Amino acid sequence: MLSWSELHGAITHFPLALLMVSVAFDIGALALRKREWGTVGYWLLAVGAVSALPAALVGIMTARSLFPGGWPPITKQHFAFALGTVVLSWAALIMRTMRSDLHAGRTGLVLGVLVAAMVGRVGYLGGRMVFAEDQPAAPAAAAPVTPASPAATDSRLVSLGDRLFHSSSTGCTSCHRMDGKGGMRGPDLTHEAARHADVAWHIRHLKAPDAVHPGSAMPPYDRLTPAELEALSHFLATRR
Question: Rounded to an integer, what distance in angstroms lies between the CA atom of residue 122 and that of residue 79?
């Protein structure tokens, strides 16, 4: 059975593509004086606007399942532009349906271009959410990588961190893979210590991801106790 995030990824591209192609046909109808292209543009808009509704609904369920403690800023932006796309596409569809020839007209074309711009922003933010953190951060020129502290090998801390990472209460594996298991939205953490072996860095990142990686889609884990944050950080700092 597909998860909400997998279902969202499976259906959301269709309305986005349909809305973009609809505008292309409308521009072509006006530039080339091909009225039949305008009719095609209308039906593409209709299917795109209708299919945008379940895509938006599944997107809301995806965000709620991934970020039960509150949506990160980039997720809120993504949702805002997605909602704007739905509203504008339906406004354009209703306006054109009321016309006798179903064509866009100048006002409809302006709305269509706005819809296309919104679609582009939705896609950009979605890509940032999925792929931005996959790029390892460049180390500071004057700051060598800090090796894992001796405490990082404390078996009790590592064991507790392991349990926290794989616990459904934290939701880490909803986005991250480790040893071939887990989600694909965030970077694979199987060898996380090769990139970040500093326990203190992991604690800062877990408490405020957006402060460490601006624009991060990862939710803050400041709801964890200091002991839990330390244990989870020690676990990640031993993943070589």
Answer: 8
Phi, psi of 145 (to 5 degrees): -65, 130
Q: Which tens digits make up the pLDDT trace of 100-139?
A: 777 878 888 899 999 999 999 998 888 777 665 444 443 4
**What ranges in the chain are assigned the alpha helix state H?**
4-11, 13-32, 35-66, 73-97, 105-131, 155-165, 172-175, 199-207, 209-212, 226-236
Half-sphere exposure at residue 106, Cβ-oriented, CA atoms within 13 angstroms: 0
- Alpha carbons 237 and 240: distance in angstroms, whole number: 8
Tell me how far apart the alpha carbons of residues 32 and 36 are, in angstroms, rounded to a whole number: 11
- Token pair for 95: 């306006």
Lowest mean pLDDT among 6-20, 25-39, 86-100, 133-147: 133-147
pTM over the 0.70 mark: no
Integer Cα distance of 133 and 185 in angstroms: 9
Provide the token pair at 231.
Answer: 């244990």
Query: How many C-beta neighbours within 10 Å does residue 90 have?
Result: 17
